[in-house]
Amino acid sequence: MKNLIKYIVIMSVFTGMVSCDTMLEPVDENRLDFEFVSTDPASAEGILLNGYSRLIDQFTFIEAATDDAVNNQLNNGFKLMALGGLNAQNNPTSRWNNFESVLWLNKFLEIIDAGEIVWSLDEDINEMFYLRMEGEALALRGLHHFYVLQAHAGIGTSGQLLGVPYITEFIQPDGNFNLPRLSFEATVQAIMADFDAALALLPTDYSDSQADLDPLYQQYDFNKYKVVNGSPYNLRMSGRIVKALKARLALFAASPSFLNDQAYYTMAAEFASEVLNTIGGVSGLSPNGVDYFTTYNVSTTDEMIWRGTIPTGVSSGIERRMFPPSVNGRGEINPTQNFVNAFPMQNGFPATAANGYDPQNPYANRDPRLAQFVVSNGDNFGGGTINTGVGGGIDRLDSIPQFSTKTGYYLKKLLHPGVRLNDDGSAVGQRTYDVYFRYTELFLIFAEAANEIGGPDQQINGMTPREVIGAIRQRAGLAQPDNYLASITTTEAMRQLIRNERRLELSFEGHRFWDLRRWGLPLNEAAQGIFFNGTDYIEIPSVEIRNFPSFATYMPIPNDETLKFPELEQNAGW
Length: 574
Hints:
Strand order of the largest sheet: 1-5
Largest sheet: 2 strands, antiparallel
CATH topology of one domain: Serine Threonine Protein Phosphatase 5, Tetratricopeptide repeat
Radius of gyration: 25 Å
Shape: globular
Number of helices: 19
CATH class of one domain: Mainly Alpha
Helix content: 25-40%
Strand content: 5-15%
Oligomer: single chain
Distance between the termini: 17 Å
C-alpha cells in the first residue's frame, strides 16, 4: 500500500518531526501535533472532513470506456484503457487511494474514542456532537471501502471471490500494511456493519422541524438538538443517505458477477423501499428527475438524496470540455449510436422498423429523453445549430482532430443550458454542484432487486417493479398507456427493460462501466456512429474497437501494491 505510506509521510506535518542542524535556537513554528488536534474541536473536525474527499460524483465521464461513448481526446485514460492499455500498472479506474480517506477517518475515530474534545460546554450539546460525528466517520469509512470494493473485488489467483482489506485503525508509519484481502462477502458484511453502526448514531435528516426528530434524540432539548443536527448540516452524511448506500451495496453484492444471491436482492429491495416510502413511494418520483441538471442552481430538489454544496460562483469548465466546437467547446464526449439505439420509440416500443423507426429520419417519434441527453445532427444547442454531417463545418464528424465528434453526436446531458462560451474566450457561466445519490437511482435499485426476487409484479412494501418502471417511463414522456410495458410478463424480459431504463436514466453519471461488470455483460462491443451525407444517414459499425481482456470483469489490484505486500492477492489474469 505504497500510497498509504506516502500518506503517513504527509501526515508527519502534524508530528513536527523536523530536524535543524543550525546553531540557532529553534523557532516555534506553531506546528500542530496530534496531541493538540485530539483536543481542539476545529482541528479534529478538519480530520473528519477529509473523509468527505474522494467522493464519487457524476462528472467522471468514465462512459468513454463503455459502449455508450467515445472520448475524442487521444490521451484520455479511459479511451486508452478501452483500446487495450488496461493493466495492473495502468488502471484509470483504480480507487485504491480511497484507503487514504479511510486512514483519516480511523484517526478521527481514535480521537473520538479518547473523549477529550469539548465541542460545547453544554453537556447535552457536547454529547450529541460526539454521537453525530462518530456516525459520520463510520458511514464514510464504509463508503470508501465500498468504492474500493466496487473497483477491485474479483476472482483472485486462488480462484476465490475476494473483496479488499478492511482497515479499522490508523496505521502508524512502522505499522503493518501487509494486509490480506477479505472474502467478498466478508467485506460486504464489514461495510454493512459500519453502516449499521452509523445508523444507530445519525439523525435520519438534518432538520429544524421537531417532527423529524429521531427516537435517539428525543431525550434532548430541541433547541440544543438544532445546534448539532439542524438544517445547516443537511449535506453531511445522514441516516437517510446511509440507508440508500446500504441498498446500493446490497444490489452490487447480489449481482451475477458476485454473489448472485437472493438474500442480498431482498436486502436491496427492502432497504430501497424503506427510504422510498418516506417520500410517498412511486407517487414520490420527482417530476424533474429527467433533467435535474438543468436546475443545478435550485437550492432544494426532491430528486436529490445527497449532493454537494451549491457554489456561490459560476463556472463553465464542464461545458467548455463538452460543447461542440462551433460553440467554442472541445466536444470531448461523443455518445455512440449504440447508446442512441437504446432509446425506444415514443410509443415505448424498441426502435425497430416494425415499431415505426425510420432510419432516414432516425430521431422522429423517439423517446423524448434522446433529445434531452444527446446533441444530434441539426439540433440547436449552446447558442448555435449543430450539424455533424455534410456542410457541418467544424462540427462535422472527424472535421478537427480532438475537437469534432467521432460518432456523429455530442453530449447534452449534465450540461447547463444557460452556459454560453463566447468567441473571445469569455463565458456566461452557471452554478453546478456534485451529485452523489439520486432518488431515481434508488427507484431503479428497487426495481432491479424486486424483479430478481419475484418478477415484474413482485410487491415489496407496497411497490412493484412494473409500477416503478411505469412511473419512470411516464415521466420521460412515453405514450400512455404503456403497452410495451404491459406486454412484459417474465423476469427475463423485465430484467432487460430495467437494465435499459437504468442505462438511459443514469447515463453519463458514472454507472454504466460498473453495471456492465456486475452484470457480467460483454465489454468489447464496438462503439458505433452515424454520418449524414447530405441525403441519407449512414450508420458506422465501428468507430472504435474495444480491447478489454477476457478477465476484465474484475479489475486489477495496483501492481506496486501486490509487489510490496505479498499478503495482497491479485485478481486472476493480471
